[in-house]
Amino acid sequence: MGLIARESWRNRCIVIGEDLGTVPAGLRERLADNGLLGMRILWFERDYARPEAPFRQPGAWSRASVAMTSTHDLPTVEGWWTGHDLHWQARLGLLPIGMNETEARARRMADRRALVDAFAQHQHQHTVPDAGADAAQRIATLQTALERARTATPAQADTLLAATASDFATAAIAYAAAAPVPLAIAPMEDLLGLLEQPNLPSTVDTHPNWRRRLPAPAAGLLASPAVRARLAALARSRAQATPDASPP
């Protein structure tokens, strides 16, 4: 830990400790004690001690961490919303043991409702200046799509979700960025609204891991109106979450 701290100071860089999945007891506490930020991912920030495991509000996320919508090993925000990752898992036999694609889709629909409910709760309690009306309309659009999907055929539900994926991406980025942590990260795939994740664990040649090109040259990646809107939403959330940008 001392060596990591020294090199971080010498190179003026932030060190992030990947504490996802199964980790040794006490690791997160030791990282925090030494000033290393852990990783908090939107999909995993749920209160499993409560019925139906609601998503935690950003204010309840660990302050000794980096807030992220996703990682390279997990679904992108639009991929998660549309269930694109479930199609890959079903195709490659990677669904949870004992679960078929229909059951996985049903569970994901419940998760979507839970997350949009969390968005709505946060919006009600923490209206961000200069974004209140837009954010509220975005969440209302997502709620309407989910309500219509209740009685839709699977194909119709897929269409509804695809049509609202961009709104979901912006809402998800703004939500994660509202966590009162020293640093928030939005993966490039989420800013660009891509469906495909860079890497799919447990695969070698059945998924094009680390081989997909981004849709534009590096100089123009952030130029589209949709990307700029997501960056603006992220910046507004960060200004409200940590106005002085100082660590806790």
From TrEMBL:
Tagged with keyword Membrane: yes
Annotated catalysed reactions: Transfers a segment of a (1->4)-alpha-D-glucan to a new position in an acceptor, which may be glucose or a (1->4)-alpha-D-glucan
Keywords of this entry: Carbohydrate metabolism, Glycosyltransferase, Membrane, Transferase, Transmembrane
Molecular function terms, GO-annotated: 4-alpha-glucanotransferase activity
Top-rank lineage group of the source organism: Bacteria
A Gene Ontology BP annotation from the UniProt entry: carbohydrate metabolic process
InterPro entries: GH, Glyco_hydro_77
Signal peptide (residue range): none
EC number annotated for this UniProt entry: 2.4.1.25
Entry keyword Membrane: yes
Uppermost EC category: transferase
Matching Gene3D superfamilies: Glycosidases
Pfam families assigned: Glyco_hydro_77
Family: Belongs to the disproportionating enzyme family.
PANTHER family per the UniProt record, alphabetical: 4-ALPHA-GLUCANOTRANSFERASE DPE1, CHLOROPLASTIC/AMYLOPLASTIC, 4-ALPHA-GLUCANOTRANSFERASE DPE1, CHLOROPLASTIC_AMYLOPLASTIC
Protein name: 4-alpha-glucanotransferase
